[in-house]
């Protein structure tokens, strides 16, 4: 991908591909990373998480939280209050994603700026001409 980068052996390419596939398997979907980012503020209850994410349904949020718990990114804490209080918080292991999240955010900002700049500079060539009759 980088200029001047040497070609990798088939074994190294396969190992790299498998590592990326593993990462994508764990972090797949549009909600996992935003959910993790939401919990970076600190522990939250289910409804607080749902409000912070906006359009996510309770069913999907529940599934995503379970997946993140299984992969050791989130801890579910149950408090014996009346009614029962349940909070979700990030594990120390979730901090291993900080560089990934930072790089994705930086790339996303750069990509958006590029698209906006290109749209401003692009002439509108195929705009239909309206007949005034």
Automatic annotation (TrEMBL):
DNA-binding in keyword set: yes
Keyword terms of this UniProt record: DNA-binding, Transcription, Transcription regulation
Keyword DNA-binding attached: yes
InterPro entries hit by this protein: HTH_HxlR, WH-like_DNA-bd_sf, WH_DNA-bd_sf
Pfam families tied to this protein: HxlR
HTH hxlR-type domain span: 13-116
Top-rank taxon: Bacteria
PROSITE patterns: HTH_HXLR (PS51118)
The protein, known as: Helix-turn-helix domain-containing protein
Organism: Pedobacter punctiformis
The organism's taxonomic lineage, starting at the top: Bacteria, Pseudomonadati, Bacteroidota, Sphingobacteriia, Sphingobacteriales
